[in-house]
Amino acid sequence: MWRREAGDRSYRSGWEGWLLRRWRTATAGTASLRRARCYGACWIQRIRAPRGDPGVLGLSIVQRALLQTPSSRRLRSQTKMTARRCSHRARSTDRLAHVQASGHLEEQTPRTLLKNILLTAPESSILMPESVVKPVPAPQVVQASRRESGRGSLELQLPELEPPTTLAPGLLALGRRKQRLRLSVFQQGVDLGLPPSQEPHGNADASSLTSSLNLTFATPLQPQSVKRPGLARRPPTRRAVDVGTFLQDLRDTSLALAPPDTVLEDTQPFSQPLVGRSPSVHHSLPCPSHSGAKDVERAASRRTWSSGLGLQNNGAGKPAQLLAGKVEEVGALAMGFPNISSNISGEDGIEPLQNGVGEEAEERMEESLREVEKAAEAQGSARAEEPEGHIEMTEAEGSWGAVEAKEPEGSSGDEDTSGRTASPELASSTPEFLRARRLQILETAPPPSTAVLPSEPPEPLSARLPPKPRIPGSRPRQDPYKTGLDHYAKLFSFYAKMPMEKKAVEMVEKCLDKYFQHLCDDLEVFAAHAGRKTVRPEDLELLMRRQGLVTDQVSLHVLVERHLPLEYRQQLIPCAFSGNTVFPAQ
Amino acid sequence: MMEEEKGAEEQQRFSYQQRLKAAVHYTVGHLCEEVASDKEMQFSKQTIAAISEVTFQQCENFARDLEMFARHAKRSTINTEDVKLLARRSNSLLKYITEKNEDIAQFNLERKAKKKKKLEDENKNSVEPAEAGVVESEN
Fold first, then answer.
1. Looking at the record, which segments are called Disordered (chain B) (predicted)?
2. Residues B104 and B54 in one domain
3. A226-235 pLDDT per residue, tens
4. Domain range spanning residue B71?
5. Residues of A near B (CB-CB distance < 8 A)?
6. Residue B139 lies in a domain
7. Chain B: nearest CA to A313, how far in angstroms?
8. Are B41 and B70 members of one domain?
9. What is the tens place of the pLDDT at every residue in A442-494?
10. In angstroms, how far is CA A229 from the centroid of its own chain?
11. What ipTM does the predicted assembly reach?
């Protein structure tokens, strides 16, 4: 801000204007006459200063302003420092002596005062206040006392003058670096005047003084001048995240995990009743290509145990077609929730619907998660009311809490221990996965509901579906979205308050997967019912109404307010903004 | 006055509800008897009562859902589409309903076709005698 352009005469605005006004008010008062003199001195210096170096002057003025605001006590010392910077005249140590000897500021003219300040002013960095953070209190106290004593008692000046001398080397360095500040003239003076005075009083004093200012025209780095290079802050080097390598890593890790999962699933003791079915399930797998899209389904939607039958028969063909097409849209699932609505609205066809449904389901999950945690019983009952009897809700309660935090981050590194191989090409896998799911649901529909409870991890789950469909040959199908389910399962195990077996966690993941599948299918059907191809919040509201979360007393917006963080609330609830605009647009 | 009316209304509704429940219970009892004779198993009274209670509750749920679905589709009338949406969970039920729906649609079409034919026949009949008359007159 202190880098004013040459020719900028707008003293009325900005800090300069502020300073000018302050000066004027100061001049109005008799008691502050001296202060006015200092201001005036500063201003005079500015006017006299060469055109091409407004920054220096501006800096000084800013320093002054800053000094004024926190404590006017430091004004004296700071004015000296600023004057030092402002002035371009040659300075010498003689000035210091002169200053020291002078004692009272009143006897000095503003001109000499500024000269002294420039001679003795410490150097501080606007950009790097931390690097010069040092024993601030000592010199500040000195300055304060100095101010109180009323301008220039000799004792007070002395300690203050000493530290500034140490900053000369910093100034020098600055001068070399900041050519455009036209410090050349100043630098000459400094070189002439200060070499003898370059004594390592230590950065402490300098930094203490400068820290009060937090201003310089210096670059962030002060390598040469800083006595303690360790204090200099370097900007953190951040490597851009390489999505490709990240996905590759996911694949590798999931590949490593896949084999043991297959073994585990085959040896599940409770899968006996489903032995007859599992082969059929596996048979269904190879039919369509099974890609990571199923993970989308899984991460995005879960099917409930009961009755996915209707969906199976009717939807089997459709989702296959739908999902076959989408590739990049599925990737959108990894995007944050704020993108959900944009993605949904921007796409056409049922393909995006599926994806959008998934995203909406995630969003819904978010919304309903907290609700679930709070109204667990109500949910369970409300769900049971539904003819389908979704029981996973209770199971997935605990793990849902993390979904909200997880989902916005999109995929992450964890693999779904259920062993489903997924791949970034989600589209091809989705239809196969969906079909497999539907078959599973159809087969396992009979013993659906009954006993599943959140606190009883595996046993009711064990009677459920066989291991998830997997294609032995489809190696590269690692779905980064599966990580969401893993996260959910971990949360679930956390909220269970008792240790959970790995099988139980897997079962929970499966249930969550099915639940989300079912959820997304419902959303899709609702949207189609309304003659739309895009899932909209109205569909979600209908779904939540059926779930019993949204009632005549509790609206969707109320739930959003209650459970979602502010960012999502801004995106969901229309709010009037300035300029007569409403966001999000309705 | 208002309170009395409200109270009377509530009572009426309640009695109406009870009558409906009784009707449902009666029907359920009959159905259970049929099933019992079919499977040679007996139904206890409590079972029939429970089933009828559940049926009644489910009917209420269905009604609410149907209304929600119709409103979601921005309609004020419940449609067969709403019913199909409701029944989508149960595969067999959905199939059954779709078949029935198709039958009904076909029936309606046939009826419409019949009506159209009747109209056409009448028109033809009215035209033919005229033509016949013309022909006769010509002859």
1. 114-139
2. no
3. 566 666 666 6
4. 13-77
5. 306-314, 385-388, 442, 525-526, 529-531, 538-539, 542, 545-546
6. no
7. 7
8. yes
9. 444 444 433 344 344 444 444 444 555 555 555 545 555 566 788 888 888 88
10. 31
11. 0.74
